[in-house]
Every structure is written in C-alpha cells, then in structure tokens.
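Task: sequence design from structure.
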C-alpha cells in the first residue's frame, strides 16, 4: 500500500515537472521519440529555428528523432555510425561505422556535402567518443555555426572550450530541459580595426 502511494506521488510530481526522464522511456521502450532524453532538447530545436534561416543546410553528427523535426525546415545531412538507423529519418545519411572510437574518417571525407550552414555535434553515442570531432576538425567547414549538445557533461564542456580557442570563436551556453548546449557563434574580433 505504501509503495502504491509512493508511485502515485512520484507520477504526479513527474507529470508536473518540465523534465521527465522516465516518461519517454516508458512510452517508447528504449526508442527516443521526443525532445530531451537522448534527443536534443526542445530549447535547442527552438534555438536553431530562431537563428538559422529556413532552407539552410544542417550537418549533424548522430541522427535521431529530432532529425525528422529539423528536416521539416532544413536540408539535413547525418553522419551515423549505426547501420540500423540509416535512412530511418528524413536526412541524407553518411554511414560511417566507428573506427578507433570515432567515425571512420574515410567514409566522411568522401561524402560530406560541399556546403552547410550549421554543424550539430550529437554523436557518436557516449561522451568520450565525441572528442574525435576535435581531432578531425580539418574535415569540416568551420565557418558554419557549430552547436555541441550535452554541455552538462565534462567532456563536452571541455571540448567546446578547446574548440573555441582553436577556431577563435565565442561560446554561448544555453540550458535546455535537463541538459545544456553550446553554440560557437561569431568569429572573435571580426569587426575590430587593426591600428
Ligand atoms: C544522441 S543520439 C542522436 C540524437 C539526435 N541528434 C536527435 O536529437 O534526435 C545518438 C545515436 O543514437 C542512435 N539513435 C538514433 N535514433 C534513435 C532512436 N529513435 N532511439 C534510440 N537511439 C537512436 C543513433 O545511433 C544516434 O547516432
């Protein structure tokens, strides 16, 4: 009886909370089919919609349910390591299995689009794997807006700071429901006058 009461109280509490880590799992098994959890937050989605003109091109590392949401307004290219997700969502997939802990660079090099406006780093799965983006930054168009998800994790937090130094860019950090994301925006001192 006490346990039943506890479950009712917990459910009422979670249903009032903006971030409910259990509901997406309960509703969808282990599949992510909503913002938050393993998918980008609604705040990150809204940020992109507010700051990137419709019709632009996004290159994302790690595809998922949010790919479909973004594809309503943008052209998507998705670097994806897991064969089972290839062609699941409305994106142009670049299948790159993991090699030495990051995407196989030979698969990326050959298939990257010529032009893209925003890079969204949300893969591969696991926090340490994403640092491969730093080691292979020369593969990418670094003039694009760069967004790194999961900045509440120490590795991603460190990664965006290293990247900002490397590229001489400013960092903006935003809170989403239950997690943070970072944006590398304008080039530092771009408009400064050299005396
Ligand atoms: C953090 S998720 C990427 C999420 C994606 N950027 C989004 O916001 O929806 C990282 C990996 O999870 C896997 N994945 C893709 N779709 C999924 C789904 N519906 N459920 C669970 N995992 C998924 C893929 O291998 C993907 O690279």
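Answer:
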């Amino acid at each position: 009886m006490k346990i039943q009461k506890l479950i009712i109280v917990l459910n009422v509490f979670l249903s009032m909370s903006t971030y409910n880590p259990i509901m997406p799992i309960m509703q969808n098994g282990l599949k992510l089919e909503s913002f938050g959890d393993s998918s980008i937050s609604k705040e990150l989605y809204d940020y992109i919609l507010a700051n990137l003109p419709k019709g632009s091109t996004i290159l994302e590392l790690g595809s998922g349910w949010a790919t479909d949401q973004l594809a309503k307004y943008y052209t998507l290219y998705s670097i994806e390591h897991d064969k089972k997700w290839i062609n699941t969502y409305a994106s142009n997939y670049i299948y790159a299995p993991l090699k030495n802990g990051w995407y196989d660079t030979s698969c990326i090099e050959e298939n990257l689009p010529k032009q893209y406006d925003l890079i969204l780093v949300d893969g591969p799965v696991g926090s340490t794997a994403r640092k491969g983006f730093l080691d292979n930054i020369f593969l990418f168009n670094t003039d694009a807006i760069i967004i790194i998800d999961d900045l509440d994790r120490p590795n991603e937090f460190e990664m965006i700071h290293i990247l900002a130094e490397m590229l001489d860019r400013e960092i903006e950090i935003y809170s989403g429901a239950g997690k943070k994301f970072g944006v590398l925006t304008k080039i530092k001192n771009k408009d400064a006058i050299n005396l």
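The chain is about 30% helix and 20% strand.
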